Every structure is written in C-alpha cells, then in structure tokens.
Amino acid sequence: MADLAAGCSTLRSLHVRGEPLLLPNAWDVASARAVEAAGFPVVATTSAGVAAALGHGDHEEAPGEEMLAAAARIAAGVAVPVTVDAEAGYGMDPEDLVAALREAGAAGCNLEDTDHGTGELRDAATHAEWLAAVREAAERQEYGLVINARIDVLVRAASTGREGSQAELVDEALGRARAYVDAADCVYPILLWEEDALARFVSEHPGPVNALRIPPSPSVPRLGELGVARVSWGGQLAHGSIEWLSRELDSLADG
Prior knowledge:
Elements: H1 2-13, E1 21-23, H2 29-37, E2 43-44, H3 47-53, H4 64-77, E3 82-85, H5 94-104, E4 108-112, E5 114-115, E6 120-121, H6 124-140, E7 146-150, H7 153-159, H8 170-180, E8 186-188, H9 195-204, E9 210-212, H10 220-226, E10 230-232, H11 236-253
Parallel strand pairs: 1-10, 2-3, 3-4, 4-7, 7-8, 9-10
Antiparallel strand pairs: 5-6
C-alpha cells in the first residue's frame, strides 16, 4: 500500500498545465511493459483495447470483474503508476468501486459520464454527486486515487450526428467540468480537438485538462502551449496493432 500511495502522489504531481503527461494507452501486460520500457512515467489503460483483448466490445460490454482483473495484472506487471480506464464504473456503488480499484493497484482512474444502459449522458448534477461519493470513499479508505472525469458531450454529439462546430458545445462541456471539478483531479473532454474550442475550454476550466491526441487535433507541443496537462491516445494504439497484424497476416497468406 505504501507503493500505491507513492504512485498516486506521483501521478497527481504530473498533472501540470503546459507540461502534458503523455499517456500512450496500453491494453495488456506486454503493451504496458513496452510503454514503461520506452520511458513513460505512467501507464494508462484503454477500455476499448482491454475489452477487445478479452473478446468483448467497448462501453461496458465486458464484465466489470474481467476488466478490473486485467487492470490488476497490468498494475502488477510494471513498476510505474497505472491509471485505469474504469468506463462508467460498471454499475458498482462508489465504495465497492474504490475498493476494487485499490485492490487492483490503480493509482488513478477514468470515470465517464455516459450511462451505457441508455446511451445517454448522465444528468450532470447527479454525476457530480456520484463522483463526489467516489472521492469520499477513497478518502475513507485512505487512498489517494487520482480521478480523471471524462466528459462525453462530444462523444454524444458524434454518435447522434449532431451538426455544427465544436465551439458550440464548449459551454455544455464546461458546465459539466465545473460541476465535477471539486471531485476530480483532471477533466477529459474527449474528442474535443478543434484548436479554438479546446483553447477556450482549457483557459476557462480552473483545473488540469486531458486531451485526446487524434489525427485532426493539434500536435503534442501545441497542446502543451494551449495549457493541456495530460494527453491520451485512447484505443488508437491497440487498434493500430491489430491493423498491422492483419496486414502482416494478409501478406503471409498471399505468400
């Protein structure tokens, strides 16, 4: 537990505006060890990649106990802190979720505000109360869990085919971020990549912000200039590895 406490402290300290913590997301022990060997100070998991490795789809299609068991294997397999993509919490109450993350050895976690049962965004005030309950449960357990609150406004807009610029969604995303700020160490407006919209979000949110590094987004150095504190790759490396394997297998099959 002393090592876990140190890992939580290290992870929290690496959230610095303008000096982003880079998190190329891993999906199993082998990929996590590759991230560690490359010199990254933290390993982050990707729910999409972990679920795929377990034979399931993303968005809580995999049983929570399997996802958390995979997270525990990853945390045990590396010496650096691990932050776990815990999706929307697998329907667990805050006390049980925190206990499971602590048992898994997670220094931090992502928690998103989508209700995967309905496909809708959770009510922001209700979700803020739930995040606060997670924080309080961690404090009761004397566990310095680093909470990254994912904001799915852009995900929901993309899934429903909502048209318009991302700038039009910043107010809604900021409203959620402000509701979550007391419970979360960092907020993650995933898929917010348009530079002006992202710059406004970062400048107006009082705490650290996580950005997803997808091809249309600004470069990592530019994200740092905008004040981003954390950069994730999500499931892209996991998907890319399978695409590479498929190409190799096709070439072998073709002789």
